[in-house]
Amino acid sequence: MTQTQNDTHWITEGLTVESALEHVYAKNGFHQEFVISKDSLRELAQRFRSREYFLECLSVVDYPDHFECCYQFNRWDKIHRVLVKVRNPDKTHPHFPTLSDIYEGANWYEREGYDFFGVIFDNHPHLTRLLLPETAKIHPMRKDFKGDSGTDVEDVLALIEYEDHQYEKVSQELKNKYQKDYFINMGPQHPSTHGVLRLLLHLDGERVLETYPVIGYSHRDHERMAEYKNYLQFTPNMGRMDYVGAMSFNFGYIGLIEKALGMAPSPRAEYIRVFSTELNRIASHLLWLGTYLLDLGAMTPFFYCFDDRENILDMLEMLTGERLTYNFFRFGGVAYDVPEGLGDQLKAFIPKMRGRLKDYKILIEKNIIFMKRTKEIGVLTKDQALSYGVTGPMLRACGIAYDIRKAEPYSIYPEMNFEIPTFPGCDTFARYQVRLAEIEQSLRIAEQAFAKMPEGPIKGEKAPKVSPKVPAGEFYFAVESARGHYGEYLVANGSANPYRLKQRTPSYANLSSLSSMLSGHLVADVVAVLGSTDVVMPEIDR
Amino acid sequence: MNELFRIILSLVIVIGFVLINSLVLVWLERKVSARIQLRRGPLYVGWFGLLQTFADALKMLGKELIFPKNCDKVLYFLAPILSFAPVLGAFLVIPFGQHLVIQDLNIGLLLVFAFSGLSFIGIFMAGWASNNKYSLLGGMRSVAQNISYEIPLLLSSLNIVMMAKSFRLSDIVRAQAHVPFILLQPLAFIIFITSALAESNRTPFDIPEAESELVAGFHTEYSGLRFGIFFISEYTYVFISSCVATALFLGGSHGPFLSGWAWFLMKAYFVVFVVMWVRWTLPRLRSDQLITFAWKVLIPLSLFNIICTALALQLLKQ
Amino acid sequence: MEIREIQKVTPDDIQVSEGVALFKLDQLLDKARSNSLWPLTFGLTCCAIEMMAVGSPRYDIDRFGFGVFRATPRQADVMIVSGTISRKMAPRIKTLYDQMPSPKWVIAMGGCAIAGGPFKYPGQYAILEGIDKIIPVDVYIPGCPPRPEALVSALLKLQEKITAKKD
Amino acid sequence: MSSNNYIYVLVFFVVGLLFAVAFTCTPLILSPRSRGKKKTSTYESGEDTLGSAWVQFDVSYYLFALIFLAFDVEVIFLFPVVLTYSIAPLLIDLLKIVIFIGILALALAYAWRKGIFSWK
After folding, report:
1. pTM for the whole thing?
2. CATH number, domain C39-118+125-163, options 3.40.630.10, 3.30.1310.20, 3.40.50.12280, 3.30.70.1120
3. Contact B282/A369, CB-based, under 8 Å?
């Protein structure tokens, strides 16, 4: 879908543009690219915001002679991905204008840019460390940072010292005055923050005045590891970033490298990829359903959902050898062929799962207490979803049918007939309905993909035997993971290691919209809304 | 002399029964929840896992007791004691058989409600004393919930008093010789069971110790046997309210073949099973929905029920 | 590679047992403790999902008495450190370990909790390579993530360690 | 056998108290002690608490306590009335009960209209 030139003249009208490029979408994932000056960035962002574009991703790249902020804007209905670059030659303290008042989603991206690169965004409301501890003095993603391996215990003890001192100082101030409202830590170790997320709640009695999510408790920095490892060595990290829906992360990374190398996997591998990704999506939604109802106080559905999930894990373990952190995709195909026992296991599983779905609908949806706990709770309007860049089931619960499998079809999804379920509710009940309907759609896709799977090799003939060398250039590839739009922005310089590999993960944007959904609710709703966003922490902390 | 002997004997029986019964109820709860959740529950500790809760109790005996920093030491120490102490008193008047009752006081029903009303003060003290925000939330919620559900509990039991013309539990049981009151007062039975569930903090009314929101509610800071005592008093209150429910509504120890106390225990344990069954099927209500449900639905219904019973008595008089 | 002293544990973590040493009762208490190890719900990353799977119907540890997952450290006996320990999370783990009443045990689950796992490379600045650098660990489970059966066998191994004869 | 001997109530309550005290003191003898820097710090999911938890709590809880007071007095009044009425159901007593309950239903309706239950 190449964009006609006159159609997009409004983007650069009256702005100082250093260079404008027209890209072939199929080759590297962008439609257009502009390099503009720093001071016209805010004006351009204003135009995109008014024309229903959402800020897909902001990646800071550390080039030898300058710092570069790459903003990507995209639309829901008609895909038109524009890459806007802003450069700043000052290498010690680069300054860029902030977009956090136009796009609230940019707030966390900019804090992460400051955290990793030391890039300062002027008049950003709260420019502090996001993922690293407060005592960190390093900017790790800069090319000149060598990493301090071996001093981990000293760092931790220093952090303990700092926090004890901090605790003494703060608790002295608050001790003497009887305050009406108070702060409570729904902190890293809490039964209903899935993984290690800390919510600092400002409460008055039981009512939530303000929520401050604190993340970074499972930060392992996959992006910096990518720069240390070559393309093949980095594939295991994909299974450990979103360990609940790891197959779609494999799909995203391997798809990106195949697009960069310009090669196609073998047809049989395409079908194996799609059918295993869909099974993994069902397993992810089942895990969400079990833990979500556990948060609302119903302890029994957790065991039924895990029972179904075990059947899927058996099949995927038969296929890939792993239960959770899959490393199954290879450049140009998949690692193993389908064992013969898998077919009839799948044929036995699908009707059982459909039966169970009917039970879930009757037992959960009709339950008056479940409805009262989820209806009109945690409402996310369409405009908020646009400004935070929310994607996936949370967006489809606001009535917008944005799904990468239909919006930017990849692999063999055009041949599968399935719908994108959307519900207009905008609240946690609608998100529940979307995910349950998605399980049915994924069942259909898995059925068709397994039925239409041709015979043949599981690796394309041009599949590289050794870790490939990607030609220089910038590439972007997006995939629909269980939580939303998972994309990767690759800057390759022709060597065996990527120069910069930015992961645009869906839960990062979804969680940043949490504080806007929660004000005015009770403590019990905080748990319900957090559960409905279905976040996976290492995907956010990377 | 035999009065003193009788007191000591009944004391030993009641304390033994309370301990054994709470261990059995915890084991029963884990087995029932396991069956509902497609799994087996405690299996390898003792025969059929029967010794499992005994092992838990013994382990708690050996756990360290920690006083949290800047907590109110006296209240913190008193809270579990006050929540366990009234438990024994409630067993005084429960009519296990025709004459199998320790002391048939003529204010039987009032005594049971008086003692069961005392326990939530222990819960609130625990919530406030441990100087922990989660416990504070749990304690405040338990206050609001217990005072809201005390009234429908008392009002719905008044209907039975009106029909049995006495507060003495054995009289009430005797009055149900032909037809258990559950058939004559179905609405009062529903209100009674709902508010009894709320009084003993069972799902869907278990907001004081909501695991998913408040980590462990009012007993967040309690370790070892102090937490164990809260556990024992909760399960004993479930048993007491089901005994009162059988005495008031299900015709106590009346039954065709078996002896009185066997019928009574069977009915009581059936009500306990229903309470456990409800726990593992329903989600938890939010605290404001729960309280408004009591004030907007249960109390008006029970007031209306009293007026109807009074009218019925008036008509039946002629 | 110089062998760094693994047990760099500050002295105030050592468990001091001043309880009255009634010989028979101690063994009975240990038998009871081993049969009712209540784990602390404390999942970090990928191994947390396998820890949840251990409670599911197929691997059900409630058969052995460990199924009661307590969310507060005050009532937990075993801390199962499952996942990668980032340097921001390490002080919290130390606090939680201190808040658990003794007797308490720690199971390091997965490669990351043992020694950094797949995220250990020269220049790693974000993770603590191994939980035994700040708290004493009783049972290690290799694997990334270890299968639920491995966690069940680790808990049984911990049982043997508790009831082993202390000569 | 139906002697109204209230000594039982006192003895059972006192023995319950003593038993509970004994229960909470036995572990002090049997349990080992561990020393940790943050052993006694209040638990707040791993973090340090910001300020003490003894705060002025939400006012809507105390409004419930006031209405509870009114209704509890009503229930206490109803106890003897209901008993005597059931023994000799006179019409005049029925009217008194209905009027009394009607007034209290009005009090409930007034509290409902004033929005005490809506937790704003």
Report:
1. 0.92
2. 3.40.50.12280
3. yes
